[in-house]
Structure formats: C-alpha cells, structure tokens
Amino acid sequence: MRRYLTEPFDGSDRYATERYQGAAGRNWWACDPTLRLLMRRHLGDGFAWAEPHLDRLGALMGGLVAACAEETDRNPPRLEKYDKWGRDVSQVVMPPSFLTARQALMEDNFTAPSFAEEARAHGADPSTLAAAWTYLLDQADIGMGCALGTGGDMVVSLAEKYAPEDVREKVREIFANGFYSGEAAQMFTERTGGSDLAALEAAAVPTGEAFSLSGLKWFASNANGSAFVVLARLPEGEVAPFLVLWERRDGTRNGVRIRRLKDKLGTRSVASAEVEFAGAEAFLLAGSEPGAGSGIGTMMKLTNASRLGVAMMGLGVARRALVESICYARAREAFGRPLIEQPLMRRKLAELIVEVEAAQAMVFDAHVSPRLRLAPALVKLRAARLGVTAAGDAIEVHGGNGYIEQWPVARLLRDAQVNPIWEGGDNILCLDVRRAMLKEQAHLPFLDRLRSLATSDLVGARVDDLAKAIETWHALDREVAEERLYPLAQFMVDVYAAALLEDQARWGLDDGRKALVARLYAEAHLMDHGPLRGLDRPAGNPGHFDDLVAGAVTL
After folding, report:
1. Which pLDDT score, from 0 to 100, does residue 196 have?
2. Is residue 535 in a domain?
3. How many CA atoms lie within 13 A of 288 on its CB side?
4. Quick check: 191 and 218 in contact, CB under 8 A?
5. Where does the record place the Acyl-CoA dehydrogenase/oxidase C-terminal domain (predicted)?
6. What is the model's pLDDT at position 293?
7. Do 302 and 253 share a structural domain?
8. Same domain for 279 and 303?
9. 165-177 pLDDT, tens per residue?
10. Do 188 and 257 reside in the same domain of the chain?
11. Is residue 108 exposed (0-12), middle (13-18) or buried (19+ Cβ within 10 Å)?
12. For position 370, what pLDDT does the model report?
C-alpha cells in the first residue's frame, strides 16, 4: 500500500516510487553470491551448520541494523560534561538507535567466545565467520564497526600478558561478551599528529606497580568505552602502550576527562572525542626490562591487525555502494529504457563489480589465510580508497538524488572518507611497506605466494616483473626510493588481487564466472593496452555483463 498522496502529474509508472527499493530491507546474505562462494570455500564441511546463522545475520544487518544506522547518523552521540553539581562526569550519551542496534548485534555476535566454541564443534572456522560478520556489519555502518571493534583483542591480549592479576580479572569482566563488545578504545593521536611518535607528548611516570599518565589525545574514537590503550612516553623517553580503565583499582573514578566530542563528517555512530588524562592510573603493556619499554614492535603488530579491520570497512562501503547502484540502475529509466541497459552505465557497473570483488578477495584472504607481513598495508591501501571511489560512483549513478541525505549513498561517501585516514594514510602505509621489505625481507614470501596463486601467462609474467621492480627499487637512492614507493605498492596490490582472483577461479564453485572477473581485472590493471588504449580490441561477449551482475547481486 502506498504511503504517499497521489499527485496530479503522477501519470506514469516512472513515479511509482515503491519500485526504488535499495539495499536496506533486503537479506544481505541471500543477495550476495560472492560471500556465499567465499564461505563455502573457507568453511568447508562447516558451511551447512553455518548457513542458517549467516542467513539470519544477513536479515539483521540489512534490516534493523541498517535502519538504526540511518537514525543514529541523524541523531549522533552527545556529551554530558557535568552533573547538576557541576562535577565532571564526562558521560557520553548514545542515542536509542545505537543501543538498539548494539544489543541486537551482541545477541547475534559471531565474535563471542561462546559462538566461536560452537562453530569449532561443528567444523566451522570462527575467524572466517567473524570476517563475514564484520563484512556484513560494515555494509550497514562502519561507525558501529569501529564502536564495537576498536582494539578489544589488543586490550585483552596485552592485559593478559602484562597487567597485574586483579586488573586482568577486571578486563576479563569487561570483555565477557567478546572483543566486539564496544568497550575498547585506542588513543594514539595528539594535536601534533598521529604518525610521528617522536612528537608525542603524553607522559607516564611510575607510582609503584602502576603509572600516573597525563596528556591530551586529540582524536580518540569510541570514547564511551571502558578500557583504553594509550600511547605515552616513559621517563627514559621511550614510547610505550598503557592500559587505562575508566575506574581505578579501588573503584573510584580515574583521571579521564572528555573535553568534547568531534563534530565529524561521517561515522557519527562512533563517539570520537578529545580525551584528557590527568594523572590517570595506567598499567604498562610492554616488557619492563631495559630497552623493552618502547613497545613499538607490539604496537606495529596490533596496528597491522587494525588495518585489516579498516580495509574491511572500505570493502563494506564499496559492496553497499555496488548494491545500491545496481538497485537504482534497474529501477530508474532514461531515454526509454532502464539505466542498467545503457552501454555506458553497464561499463561503470561492470568495472565496479570487478573492483569490489578484487578487493573482497584480498581482504578475506588477509583475514583467513596465514598472515603475510605486507598484506595489511597493501590491502588497506586499496580497499580503503575503493570505499571512497565506489561511494562516489554510487552518487553519480543516483544523479541528483545521490547528493541528497534522504538517500543512502550520501552517508556512504561521508563515512568512507575516514578509512584512508584511520590506521595510517597512504604515505604511512607505503613507509610500512618499505620497513617490511628492508628490515624483514617481507617481499620474498609475498612473491612466493603470488607465484603459487597465478595461473595465466599474463599474471605469471607480471609476478616476474614485480620481482624485477622490487630489485630495481632496492638499488635506488633513498630519497628517490621513498618517492617511488606509492607506484611500487600499487603494482604489488594489482598483482596480488589478480593472482587471488585466478586462484578463486580454480575453485570451480561458480560455473566459470570468477574466471571472467579474473580476466577482466588482469586486463584492466596488468595488460599493455597499446597506443589506442584498447579501443581497437574486439568487443566482448554481450552476455558477460549479465553474468557479472547475476553473480554479484541476487535481487
């Protein structure tokens, strides 16, 4: 039944707005053949047990969680700085829509210890299911993904290793519902910046078994959490991670003040704030022996894990943008036929499908396969940026409607803009690639993996070319080598994605469609198109577009 009044000029079916259902309200598991392919492959015999859970989760993410995300974006968290007596309480008040979504997510939490135990009992890998959970959540709200998953595993693992027993017990209580309970926050960035540790000013001095930590963190996400990992400087000058809880060991309020919440462009469902530590009780999360206090190695490992989370956010936005684009292009008509039948629109959608599936291959490979040292930086480099470009494409597909906040793609673009910043921008990622190659020879196992995945002559040849490019890069002057890190990293990503897509084609789970995706990606990124830029190439099979869409989105 229509909920709107019929207007005098409603003279054609083009005004039947009920035809314009986007992604919201759909089951995101049921309409995603690419995710089903990945789960069948990575879960193996456990897929049959997991499928009903994934189906229920797909309905939850596309329904309640997606609807709550829109409401929270319009009514974000607020800060109650003082109580009625004028005392600092620094209480972040989350909107009802956020609390409703979080409760539903915690009741169906694939990252909870109890769910992981049940999954193992049925032969299903918990890490694979956790990746699917975050992938679907990030399509609805990457802000919620940040609010639930900002370093919970970091807090628990470091506290178990370094914190006193009573503090460890407190941390266990806080995270009883799993790492994705929304109780953790990472606080690194200061007014001087977030990447240059030499400029860090927060300081911690020992007070017996604990430390007294003071300083200001400029951009701290999930400020409404209960357990924080804070970078601060030791008296000897080294930088180290510290655990700060909202309450002291004796149960009194800790020296943590929230100055204000950030008025952000997007991701409004995560409360980001300026947080001041005023003699806060803190516990060192690194070795206490001489020279071990910096904790830089520990922080790099944890940062790389977080980078994979941000890469998943970029992928989630890109996937949502793709679905919204296909839905709209099927319903909208121009020049006498739907947009999806127009040649230029088919080109744009085909390219978007291929790029999203290439990023998906890398993100899931990095989450569920043995970790490659280079993978987090490379995958984030591509996936975070793809979220921005895919959201921009979705706005273009929607035309003027896409620029309006009542339509979903405007928020997608606002949210996506933060992913290239979180956990290091492109330049910082490239510097990490350099560090990994020079100090850990990380390019060697990376190249070995690419050789084991590639099947075509084209991709195999590009793996060899990449090896030569890395060798040439090593011989460059340091300044020139740094300048050329970005194109080298992009080359790495292109070959990595192409090899993974070819490997997926070998799985034989989709009647050859993935081989088409692999070929189109390799041709776009790795082939020499000649002086005519490929204009003289033979036309492709007209049916390929239909195959691409049918294997990407089932509506």
Report:
1. 78
2. yes
3. 10
4. yes
5. 293-438
6. 45
7. no
8. no
9. 999 999 999 888 7
10. yes
11. middle
12. 80
Does 161 reside within a domain?
no
- pLDDT digits 0-9 by tens, 348-392: 999 999 999 999 999 999 999 888 999 999 999 999 999 999 999
pLDDT at 14 over 80: no
Q: What is the total residue count of the chain?
A: 555
d(CA 423, CA 400): 33
Quick one: 274 and 349 in the same domain? no
Same structural domain for residues 280 and 303?
no
Q: Are residues 272 and 318 in the same domain?
A: no
* pLDDT beyond 70 at 520: yes
pLDDT at 259 > cutoff 60? yes
Point out the domain boundary residue: 286, 312, 343: 286
Q: 496: domain CATH number?
A: 1.20.140.10
Please check whether residues 31 and 106 belong to one and the same domain. Answer: yes
DSSP string for 33-80: HHHHHHHHHHHGGGHHHHHHHHHHHHHHIIIIIHHHHHHHHHS--EEE
Q: In whole numbers, what is the pLDDT of the chain averaged over residues?
A: 92
The residue range of the domain holding 117 is 19-140
Residue 153 lies in a domain: no
Chain segment 136-183, per-residue pLDDT in tens = 999 999 999 999 877 787 788 889 999 999 999 999 998 887 778 878
In whole angstroms, what is the distance from residue 435 CA to residue 429 CA? 10
- Per-residue pLDDT band for 288 (boundaries 50, 70, 90) equals low
Separation CA 10–CA 14 (nearest Å): 8
Q: What is the pLDDT of residues 214-243, one digit of tens each?
A: 999 999 989 998 999 999 999 998 999 999
Work out whether strand 272-284 and strand 256-261 pair parallel, antiparallel, or are unpaired. antiparallel
Tell me if 90 is assigned to some domain: yes
Shared domain check, 192 and 124: no
Q: Give the lowest-confidence range in 13-27, 50-64, 280-294, 477-491.
A: 280-294
pLDDT number for residue 342? 96
pLDDT exceeds cutoff 60 at 405: yes
User: Domains in the chain: how many in total?
Assistant: 3
DSSP state letter for 179: S
- Using CA atoms of 438, 442, 448, 449 in order, give the dihedral in degrees to the nearest 10: -150
CATH code: domain of residue 240: 2.40.110.20
Q: How far apart are CA 325 and CA 320, in angstroms?
A: 8
Q: How far is CA 55 from CA 87, 121, 333, in A?
A: 48, 20, 32
What DSSP state is assigned to residue 401? G
Using CA atoms, how far apart are residues 298 and 221, in angstroms rounded to an integer?
A: 20
The C-alpha atoms of residue 180 and residue 152 are separated, in whole angstroms, by: 6
C-beta separation of 353 from 552 below 8 A:
yes
Whole-angstrom CA distances from 531 to 347, 381, 497, 525, 535 are 21, 29, 26, 16, 9
Backbone angles phi, psi at 554, to 5 degrees: -110, 115
- Token readout for 468 is 């030569």
Instruction: Answer with the one of 89, 114, 140 that is the final residue of a domain.
Output: 140
Burial class (CB in 10 A: 0-12, 13-18, 19+), 421: middle
Residues 6+ apart with CB under 8 A from 121: none
pLDDT tens per residue, range 452-462: 999 999 999 99
